[in-house]
Design a protein that fits this description.
single chain, 6-stranded parallel sheet, 16 helices, about 350 residues
């Protein structure tokens, strides 16, 4: 092992644990919020939620266009492929490429995004009770450390794990902004059962504490309402979602290439905009888990910096971020981008969080 590797290994072993981070913030009497990335889902089951698993699923589709794309660009990173496609389309248009080529590239981009959503839904566990009770309870306790204290949880994941955990444990403090209206308020006088409309976003957004910054499987934009799919007709939630997708009704997903493209997508949807702007307004400290701050996550760093710059005189601002890493390589990456943050950056060992244990 080289001297550099020895130093990196030593630095990683000396990182604070997750519990030490919580203790530090409690001592400082500082509020904390949580940002979760794909590592949250991979910690549950990496065979389902890794990029390789999604790639393998799409590869099995044997679509000739997608097969050629993966072969030409030579990567399993969907964000990179989508960004490359965006570049190809821009170049083709700028150089006066024929309409047929541009349309082929645009169709390929749309097909890849659709296939990604199909892959997430198809690989997903079928229902909430496939999640072991001990994992569900452990994760719920982890999330409650934020939600029970009036703090916020942000997720960039598309899957149902977060929703399942909060629903199965009947959280009293988690609020995703959705609510139903009672359609027959006088039902108790007539002896009828209460009837409700669909689950729409906005009714409780002022109390919202759970935010899906990049969208998620059960949330759909109908054009007039933001609607959350629920268990109904005695069918599992994922079954209802897939039936909607079979009818070409797709959930809100941010699958664009780089940070700028993702931000454009976010600002074209009022639910996503609300979630992102709430991230821009957090105060105290932010703890991240399973979020790598890769080259396509600049919009998240921008949101953190907006939170760090606001309220400088009143003290109501974001003071620090605690970033979880799993390896020496992860630590080196955060050290290399630390200068991009306008608040203090701390790093802890994400492996000590034990969310699902």
């Amino acid at each position: 092992m080289s001297k550099k590797s020895v130093i990196q290994d030593l630095e990683f072993k000396q990182l604070r644990t997750y519990d030490e981070v919580l203790k530090d913030l409690k001592t400082k009497r500082r509020s904390k919020h949580l940002l979760m990335g794909n590592g949250f889902s991979m910690a549950y089951d990496k065979n389902i939620f890794s990029y390789n698993a999604l790639y393998d699923f799409i590869e099995k589709l044997k679509d000739p266009v997608l097969s050629k794309l993966f072969e030409a660009i030579n990567t399993k990173n969907f964000e990179q492929i989508m960004r490359q496609l965006d570049n190809f389309i821009e170049i083709a248009i700028a150089l006066g490429g024929n309409d047929k080529l541009v349309k082929q590239l645009q169709a390929a981009n749309e097909l890849l995004q659709k296939s990604l959503i199909d892959a997430v839904s198809s690989l997903h566990p079928e229902h909430v009770f496939e999640m072991p009770e001990e994992k569900s309870k452990s994760c719920f306790n982890f999330l409650s450390a934020y939600l029970d204290n009036g703090e916020k949880v942000f997720s960039t994941n598309y899957d149902l794990l977060l929703y399942w955990v909060l629903m199965r444990n009947e959280s009293k403090t988690a609020n995703d902004g959705f609510g139903m209206e009672l359609l027959n308020p006088g039902y108790h006088k007539t002896g009828d059962d209460p009837e409700y409309d669909d689950l729409y976003w906005g009714k409780y957004k002022d109390e919202q504490s759970v935010f899906h910054v990049h969208g998620t499987l059960p949330i759909f934009d109908t054009g007039t309402e933001i609607e959350k799919e629920v268990y109904k007709n005695r069918k599992y939630l994922l079954t209802n979602i897939k039936e909607r997708m079979d009818k070409k009704d797709y959930p809100i997903f941010v699958t664009a290439g780089d940070g700028e493209e993702k931000l454009k997508h976010i600002y074209h949807n009022r639910y996503l905009t609300f979630c992102y702007e709430n991230l821009c307004k957090i105060t105290g400290s932010l703890i991240t888990f399973g979020f790598g701050f890769g080259e396509y996550d600049e919009h998240i760093i921008d949101a953190i910096n907006k939170a760090a710059k606001r309220g400088a005189q009143s003290g109501e601002k974001l003071f620090s971020v605690y970033i979880g890493v799993y390896s020496e390589g992860g630590l080196e990456h955060i050290k290399s981008i630390e200068h991009k943050f306008l608040c203090k950056v701390n790093v802890y060992n994400a492996g000590t969080a034990n969310i699902w244990s």
